[in-house]
Design a protein that fits this description.
The chain has 217 residues and is α/β, with parallel strands linked by helices. 31% of the residues lie in helices and 28% in strands. It has one domain: Rossmann fold, CATH 3.40.50.150. It is built from six helices and nine strands. A seven-stranded mixed β-sheet has the order 5-4-3-6-7-8-9. It has a two-stranded antiparallel sheet with strand order 1-2. Helix 2 crosses helix 4. The protein is globular. The protein binds S-adenosyl-L-homocysteine. The site of S-adenosyl-L-homocysteine has 25 residues, from strand 2, helix 4 and strand 4.
Length: 217
């Protein structure tokens, strides 16, 4: 019981921090954070740290991203009900669950994970929450995912040397892509909008685990 109270308390503290600092403004994104239990996407031994503002290990040398980073990326996607979204780097499935909440029953989240054990871990987490609009695929997402293209929004949650060309091809005209682009030490969060070509701007510097596969490191 005491642990549960601590978890709720630290979740509220994060929400207060984002609201008062103006880091996250979109009310729907803040509501989605309230709705999705991050504690269900991490290893049991870290559960009491579910709402610390830092990444946590999920095994296989990978991490669930820091809550503030998840919020900044989610808000930047400008999600609408009914959007079809591709995520590259499922990890725990938490980011996919946040997107699921915002695109609703008419929307769809297709998320690719290159490590089979993590695809399985995420599958279990998503099933526990009975999210019907999320499809997890064990695949090298750096190649995109042609079968379900085009996508209204695309999010890459691993550091990439450049946005993979096939991924840009699969983005709908006027679609939005968010991706950390740079070297292995730090990356700029790139927001791209497709207007014929991709028009990009930076949302600042972040640190991610590397994207692997054909167009990764
Ligand atoms: N979005 C995740 C965190 C991402 S960590 C969450 O909410 O928990 C980055 C993930 O990208 C890792 O799980 C890593 O295995 C995966 N990854 C790396 N390269 C990939 C690739 N080419 N295709 C799909 N997944 C990849």
């Amino acid at each position: 019981m005491i642990n549960l109270i601590k978890i709720i308390d630290s979740k509220k503290r994060l929400l207060d921090y984002w609201k008062s600092s103006g880091i996250v403004k979109d009310k729907k994104v803040l509501e989605a954070f309230k709705a999705v239990p991050r504690e269900k996407f991490i290893l049991k031994k870290y559960r009491h740290e579910a709402y610390g503002d830092y990444p946590l290990s999920i095994g296989e040398n990978q991490t669930i991203s820091q809550p503030t980073t998840v919020m900044i990326m989610t808000e930047a996607l400008e999600l609408k009900e009914g959007d079809k979204v591709l995520e590259i780097g499922t990890g725990s499935g938490y980011q996919a669950a946040m997107i699921s909440e915002l695109v609703g029953d008419k929307g769809k989240v297709i998320t690719t994970e290159i490590i089979p054990e993590l695809a399985e871990f995420a599958q279990k987490n998503i099933e526990k929450l009975k999210l019907k609009n999320v499809k997890i695929i064990n695949y090298d997402g750096s190649r995109g995912y042609e079968k379900q293209k085009p996508y209204d929004k695309i999010i890459i949650t691993a550091a990439c040397p450049e946005i993979p060309p096939p991924v840009i091809d699969e983005l709908e005209e006027n679609g939005i892509i968010i991706a950390p682009v740079g070297n292995l030490i730090s990356q700029q969060m790139v927001k791209g909008i497709k207007k014929g070509k991709l028009k990009t701007r930076s949302l600042g510097y972040f640190v991610f685990v590397p994207l692997k596969g054909k167009y990764g490191y």
